Amino acid sequence: MIFVAKNEYINYLLTFKIKRMKKKLYFTFAILLVILVVLQFIPSKLPPNSSVPVAENIQVQNASNEVMAILKTSCYDCHSNQTDYRWYTHVKPVTWLIARDVSKGREALNFSEWNTYEKRKLIRKLGGIKEEVIKEEMPMKIYTLMHPDAKLNQSQILLITDWTDQETKKIMGQ
Questions:
Q1: How many Cβ atoms from other residues are within 10 Å of residue 39's Cβ?
Q2: CA nearest to 172, candidates 130, 122, 135
């Protein structure tokens, strides 16, 4: 009899604790939802796009159609003034992350300004492209999660590295 009462008491306590934990969990989710909604009213600015098309800028550097397609799919969103801002880019805090990544990307390499780079700078940029692609640091992993078609396979990596080598040689006059 005492044993049964003790089990019932333990079950009662467990049920009570579970209900209390559920209430805390619901309350936490409600608070997070309110915070997420409030964040949407904080103004933020994504880096602006240019109305000038990009394709001609890099075509001058003798990039094949295949290389151009890879660059456009895997690089232009962060490394040109032609970023394709999708619906989720307007949801905070994602907006802030994308704005930071695009700003840093354009600062490091901007295909929209390709024709303005001096020869030395072009050679450095081409070397940087090759290095980042070989190390598989570009495109960024977080970008390829949302854009799986941007992930480079080995043949695409080879196309890009061959292009960077050929262009470097052309610029150096070899």
A1: 14
A2: 122
Which DSSP letter does residue 47 get? P
Distance of CA 164 to the CA centre of its chain: 23
Domain of residue 19: give its range.
Answer: 1-39
Length of the chain, in residues: 174
For residues 6 and 38, give the distance between their C-alpha atoms in angstroms, rounded to a whole number: 48
With a CB cutoff of 8 Å and minimum separation 6, the contacts of 60 are 114, 115
The verdict on residue 68 lying in a domain is: yes
CA-to-CA distance for 35 and 79, rounded, in angstroms?
32
- Domain assignment of residue 45, yes or no: no
pLDDT digits (tens, 9 = 90+) for 14-62: 787 788 888 888 888 888 988 888 877 877 787 877 766 655 555 546 7
Q: Which tens digit of pLDDT belongs to each residue from 99-117?
A: 999 999 999 999 888 888 8
